[in-house]
Amino acid sequence: MFPRDFAWGAATSAYQIEGGWQADGKGPSIWDTFVQQKGRVFEEQNGNVACNSYQLWEKDLECIQQLGLTHYRLSVSWARLLPDGTTQHVNQKGVAYYNKVINDLLACNVSPMVTLYHWDLPQALQDQGGWKSESIVSLFDSYAQFCFQTFGDRVKLWITINEPQVCAKCGYEDGIHAPGLKEPGTAAYLVGHNMLRAHAKAWHSYDSLYRAEQRGAVSLAINSDWFEPLRPGCNEDVAATERDLAFTLGWFAWPVFVTGDYPQIMRSAIDSQSQKLGYSGSSRLPSFSKDEPAPIFGTADFFALNYYTSRKVKAGEGCGQMLCLNSDRDAEEVLDPSWPICGVSWLAVVPHGLRKLLKYIKDTFNNPAVYITENGFSQVGPRQIDDVQRCEFYSDTIMEVGKAIEEDGVNVRGYFAWSLLDNFEWADGFSVRFGLFHVDFSDAKLSRTIYRSGLEYAKMIMKYKGRHDVK
Ligand code: GBH
Question: Which of 163, 226, 425 to mutate to test the pocket of ligand 1 (most atoms within 8 A of CB)?
């Protein structure tokens, strides 16, 4: 059912696990700033220490080996490598840390997948406008090239940006993630635009300068729910579903995989809302110029998908006079009562939605190789090591992925569980636990304990993979 070389992985990100926020010359990132502001994060928690993976990496490696993973997805912290965001000053201790992580993984026969940007922009670059400023494009490219040069002899799978849609919307529209700006209806589109350009420029650099020698693959991780119309026979619901898909998956996938430009549905929704509200001037959704220095189309060597949940969609209430992304999108999301919610409130558990989304991706984006770069199940409230619901979730989900491969012919190349460890879950702090290993944040040693779901995942990997070297 799963190809022999299928990637069985788990994922983490730098800010969520590393801690060491001021260690050894690391510069501050926008999350270091954000968590210091009152009311941003559950109980004013922060990632200053988190899982302390900066010091306890070898413990993480033991967890990785205990699961029998073939792949591990981590992110590197831009400000740990380049404290002011530029290559003028390189923090050698940061380089040494990631060199050790990568070398240790390879020595254990685990392939690293490395994300360059998982939401932790160096504060120094935010101070110059961050993702709203076009200058970020070449700054990101320099950073990416620095990483290709430094680690690319050993890292063969790269993700430039994790979830640009979330960065743009949560960071600049809703203000619930760093940098915490609320500039509805405009900033998110500009940020998304610069993220696409930055991604494309880094991909072109890899393609022309590193690929021949390093032979790796580069993509961006696109998050999307699966959406389906609440009333399949109702034209308004069907149209709203298409808009919702366009504003989530399509926003970033369409330019990269289909046309080099945004989905037409998205642009016309934005422009017609502008017109309705008498917003004059050029489109709030920027355009790519004809002679873009780094064209967007074709800048992904595989499709990287983060999938968590599904939504039923009905026509919006015509969100009226608001200039914002949700009213541009004009779609109302509802939950099917049969979908359980057992952890964080947004995560309705719908494993079969993943299969449908994979089929949609195959059909819409010309059958790309797909890595599921994140998928997981959360726990809230009292710690439950015997997490039977999560066990069921992983076995159901992996079954659906198997069907997508076998029955729908989707070219799925790998699956990464989110997450290896309980960690700093952004605005929810440590109150939401996604780990295959529990981390005891009240214990100074931050001890890691495998959940039952971790044991089950290890068994599934062993079964599907026929590996015999799992400890
Ligand atoms: C991923 O985001 C991230 O890549 C990862 O870092 C994170 O730990 C993981 O998922 C689990 O959350 O609070 O109702 O406004 C997934 C996309 C974006 C989905 C934020 C939930 C907040 C919804 N997430 N969103 S709400």
Answer: 163
